[in-house]
Each structure stands twice: as structure tokens, then as C-alpha cells.
């Protein structure tokens, strides 16, 4: 079992975003892989520091409870391939549109997904 310090040194993905709502303007931060590990702050830097502290406490609580800690998700963990089941009618429509554009169905689907 890893210790807290070892987890904190792993390359987890942090998301810090500005928020403007009825309570004012602030920054919301979370750790992508650690469900519920979040914090906020008045500045980007404060939110980032606060979420790192929240991460330490989150990991500590999970370890004390004997629960598994998710590992960081890295870019190399993805193959670039996924399978999607769609209705026959949509498959037909996309195939016809791809042929009309003179590209493969994969190329056309990639184009449509990137829009």
C-alpha cells in the first residue's frame, strides 16, 4: 500500500476554473481522478493550493477506511479508439454523407465529433 506522500507525487490531473455566480467570483478546483476531491479560492493560485490540501486529506481518509485510491489518468492510457453503437438509420445517414464528401466513415465521424 502506498503512503500519502507517494500518492501526492503522482501526476494527477487538476482542473481549476473561474466561477461567477450569485455568491460572487471565485475559482473552483478539483482533482479529475478523485471523485469529490475539490476546493475553491479567491484566486487561481489559492484554489490550486487549497485543492492540493484537500487531496492530501481525501487520500488520508480513503487509506484509513481501507478504500482504493484511483491512479492518475495519463495521455498514454488512451488508444484513440472507442466503439459506439448507433441506430441503423444514423449509420446509414453518416455513411451516405461521408461518401458524398469523398472520405471514409471514420474520417467523417471524426470531423463531426470535432465540431
What does this structure look like?
- The protein is an alpha+beta fold and 115 residues long.
- 43% of the residues lie in helices and 17% in strands.
- The protein has four helices and three strands.
- The chain has a three-stranded antiparallel β-sheet with strand order 1-2-3, covered by helices on one side.
- α3 (88-101) crosses α4 (105-114).
Major beta sheet, specifics? 3 strands, antiparallel
CATH class of the largest domain: Alpha Beta
Total E-strand runs: 3
Mean pLDDT: 93
Task: Fill in the CATH topology of the largest domain.
Answer: Double Stranded RNA Binding Domain
Q: What's the CATH architecture of the largest domain?
A: 2-Layer Sandwich
The SSE order reads HEEEHHH
How many helical stretches? Answer: 4
Main sheet: strand order: 1-2-3
Give the DSSP E fraction (strand runs of 2 or more residues): 15-25%
The structural class is alpha+beta
**Tally of domains:** 2
Inertia-based shape: elongated
Helix content: 40-55%
> Could you name the ranges where pLDDT drops below 50 across 5 or more consecutive residues?
none
Radius of gyration: 21 Å
Give a short summary of the structure.
Helix content is 43%, strand content 17%. It has helices at residues 4-8, 44-64, 88-101, 105-114, and strands at 14-21, 24-31, 38-41.
Features of the shown structure:
single chain; 2 domains; 115 residues; Double Stranded RNA Binding Domain; three-stranded antiparallel sheet; 4 helices; 17% strand; alpha+beta; elongated
Amino acid at each position: 500500500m502506498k503512503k500519502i506522500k507517494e500518492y501526492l507525487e503522482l501526476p494527477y490531473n487538476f482542473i481549476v476554473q473561474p466561477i461567477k455566480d450569485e455568491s460572487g467570483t471565485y475559482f473552483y478546483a478539483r482533482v479529475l481522478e478523485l471523485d469529490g476531491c475539490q476546493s475553491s479560492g479567491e484566486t487561481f493560485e489559492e484554489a490550486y493550493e487549497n485543492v492540493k490540501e484537500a487531496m492530501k486529506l481525501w487520500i488520508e481518509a480513503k487509506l484509513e477506511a481501507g478504500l482504493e485510491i484511483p491512479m492518475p489518468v495519463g495521455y498514454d492510457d488512451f488508444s484513440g479508439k472507442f466503439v459506439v453503437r448507433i441506430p441503423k438509420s444514423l449509420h446509414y445517414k453518416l455513411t451516405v454523407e461521408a461518401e458524398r464528401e469523398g472520405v471514409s466513415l471514420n474520417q467523417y465521424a471524426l470531423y463531426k465529433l470535432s465540431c
